[in-house]
Structure formats: C-alpha cells, structure tokens
Design brief:
By secondary structure, the protein is of the alpha/beta class. It contains nine helices and 17 strands. The protein has helices at residues 2-21, 194-203, 221-224, 229-249, 266-277, 300-305, 323-341, 362-377, 380-383, and strands spanning 23-31, 42-45, 61-64, 67-75, 79-85, 104-107, 112-117, 136-145, 148-157, 171-175, 211-215, 259-264, 284-288, 293-294, 297-298, 314-319, 350-354. It has an eight-stranded mixed beta sheet with strand order 8-9-11-10-12-13-16-17, with helices on both faces. A four-stranded mixed beta sheet has the order 3-4-1-7. A hairpin with a 2-residue loop joins strand 3 and strand 4. The radius of gyration is 23 Å and the shape is globular.
C-alpha cells in the first residue's frame, strides 16, 4: 500500500514539475515620461492573458514615476502579438516618428523581459485624421445570438438609400465590424475605410449599390472565427438570427447571389467557411490575408476532401508580404491549388492579388479592399479596373 502511495506521489510530483516547466514568465516593462502621473498602461494582444485585443484588460503596475511593469505567465511556444495603450485605441503607443506601429512579436521560449520606451501617443498627435464616417450608419447594440456573446452591429447604407425607396440592395457581412468604418472604434485606431471606398465606387458606377453590415468581434474571436463549436455557433448566429433581422429591417435582396461575407486573417477564414459551408445563403466571400492553414487552422483539407458538385461561389483572396502574411502564404497557395483541383477558374470563380508592399494590418487592408468590392459587386465598368 505504501509503495502504491509513493508511486502515486512521484507521478503527481513529476506531472506538476512538467507542467511548471511548460510555463514561461514574460515581464513587460514600459517607460514613458510625457504623460500624466495617474495614467494607466496596458499591454494588449492576441492571448487571453493579454485581453484578446481588448484595449483595457491587461494593466501594468506603476513601479515609479514613468515606469510600469507586470509579469505575465504563458505556455512555452505561445506566439504573441501585442501593443501598448493607455486604455483605449485612441491612446495607443506610437513609434518615435509618430506612426502607428506594427504589432510586437514574441515566441515564448524562456523567461524574458520586454522593455518598451514610448515617446509619443496617438492622442498627442497634432494633425489628427478625420474621424467622420462617410454616409449613413445605423447601430444595433448588444445584439444577441444563441451560444455566443452579445455584440454590436453597425449597418452602412448606400448613397440615396432614403431617396430611392423602391430599391433593394445586396448585402455584405464583414467580420471585425468595429474596425471597418470608424477609427474611434477600431482596435488599432485605423479603420478599413470601407465606407469611403464603397461610397466612391458606387458614385462612379464601379460597383452596384450595396448595404454593408459590420459584425463586431468579441473576446472569443479566435474560436468564433474557426471550425470549432463556437465557430459553428457564430455562423449559425449570422445565418439564423442576424441575416433575417437585416432582411426584415432593411430593403435587401435576400437571395444567395446577393449575399456576401468578408474579413481579414481568421476573419477571412470564417468568411470563406461561410460561403463554402453555407453556400445556400452566401455566394461570395472576400478573404484578406486569410488564415487558411496555419497553427490550429486548416480549412484546405476540407476543400480537398469535398466530393460534391462544384460550388457556385466566388472567392476574393489577397495577401501581403510582411512576416505574418509570408507565414500565411503557404496556406493561401494550397487553397488556390485546392480550388483549381475542384474546378474553380482563376479570375472567374476566384481572384488572387499579391500585395508585395502589404502588411497584416488595417491600413493595408484598407488599400486593397476596393478590389474585393469590385470582384464581388463590380459593374462592367468597374470590372475593367481589376
């Protein structure tokens, strides 16, 4: 009996030891002398311990005047992306020359200290960009969905919506909706400028007038934008709750050929899945810098394993050329090959654009999104621009 107990205790101690070995401490230190002494500093990133990109969750502790620090525990091998804010994205740390920085990147391997000196903040810029949204938007706050968190919905209406009252419109549903129209709600203080792009393209008759629905994300973003159970619940929310609501309250063309999805990164992945798995509802998707196959994401195999008739859908895909987008390119290439193997034709059924100067961020997606709009909703005049 004593031997059994000792054996059990040894196993327990070994398990605890291995578990402890898998934990790594990262200390974040921020120094800044040009802000008030009562300022709060936050590290904001792609991990639950960093708030899942919520700007005011992972607060650092003030050690002394101008110096904040905090030790946070991660698993060995975690790949972190993060930024620094003073509690909101209009108070984001900038580069020394006053620009919005790329994400800090860190693969967690050993206990380490990250030291960041901030000389400028976004709310201290003298020449701030206009925060005005182009066009008319409607908000639906705390929208409920079964099995997922409540979230806000923003609806952009095309020019002359209230003048041409006998007209109905196609609808584009875009993930990360807080980022697409308004820099004051965007997680990084830079929006996609879809409102300006769509307004210009419509007025120049490059695309047909459309309604754009922005779906705010939640702290469950990484799971909602995936194939797992929460991802299925999120897609069912769009199909069974949000789309019927939009169709009831706005003048929409409800048919599948007039319904599209769009997003970036894992938002691009879930937009592709919506058009692939719910092709009876969505006929188009825009996938910018999509996470088709990286880490735990892999929807390429789903396409390869599909044995049915060719799906009647159109897919816009693009990618940039920075470090993260270069990591995503392998999955993009495999997806393009997979689509071709299933009978899809380039420039007709799918369109791929490689932005050699593009990065994995809102400003790059803002520069490219007009191509997605034209591929999905372009007039004959507009399609000549691609």
């Amino acid at each position: 009996m004593k031997k059994c107990i000792l054996h059990f205790l040894n196993i327990l101690l070994l398990t605890c030891s291995l578990s402890a070995q898998n934990k790594v401490a990262v200390t974040f230190e921020v120094r800044s002398n040009n802000i008030s002494t009562d300022s709060k500093i936050y590290v904001v990133g792609n991990h639950i311990n960093l708030g899942n990109w919520q700007s005011d969750v992972a607060e650092l502790f003030e050690i002394s005047e101008g110096f904040w620090s905090r030790k946070i525990i991660f698993n060995h091998g975690d790949k972190l992306e993060f930024k620094i804010t003073r509690g909101s994205w209009d108070k984001e740390a900038l580069t020394d020359d006053g620009l919005i920085p790329s994400n800090h990147l860190l693969e967690v391997k050993n206990d380490t200290t990250i030291i960041i000196e901030v000389k400028r903040w976004s709310d201290q810029r003298q020449n701030k960009e206009s925060l005005q949204i182009t066009g008319i938007v409607k908000y639906h706050l705390n929208f409920k969905g079964e099995g997922i968190r409540e979230r806000n919905i923003i609806v952009w209406l095309p020019p002359f919506y209230y003048l041409e009252t006998d007209k109905s419109y196609p609808v584009l549903y875009v993930q990360d909706g807080q980022n697409i129209f308004d820099p004051t709600t965007s997680l990084f203080g830079v929006d996609w400028q879809i409102d300006e792009k769509a307004d210009t393209l419509i007025r120049k008759n490059f695309i047909e007038p459309i309604i754009i629905v922005g779906i705010y994300n939640s702290i469950d973003r990484s799971n909602e934008y995936s194939e797992d159970e929460l991802g299925k619940a999120y897609m069912n929310f769009i199909v069974d709750s949000l789309k019927p609501f939009i169709d009831r309250n706005y003048r929409t063309l409800v048919q599948r050929e007039n319904t599209a999805a769009g997003g970036s990164s894992s938002g691009g992945l879930i937009s592709f899945i919506l058009s692939w798995e719910y092709s009876q509802v969505f006929s188009k998707s825009a996938c910018l810098s999509p996470a088709f196959k990286i880490d735990r994401y892999d929807f390429v195999d789903n396409v390869l394993q599909y044995q049915g008739e060719k799906k009647d859908i159109k897919i816009y895909i693009d990618n940039g050329n920075d470090k993260l987008d270069s990591q995503l390119q392998f999955g993009v290439d495999e997806m393009l090959n997979s689509l071709e193997s299933k009978g899809f034709t380039g420039k007709e059924d799918f369109y791929f654009y490689k932005d050699n100067n593009g990065s994995h961020n809102e400003s790059s997606w803002a520069k490219r999104f007009w191509k997605a709009l034209i591929f999905m909703f372009g007039t004959e005049k507009g399609r000549g621009l691609l």
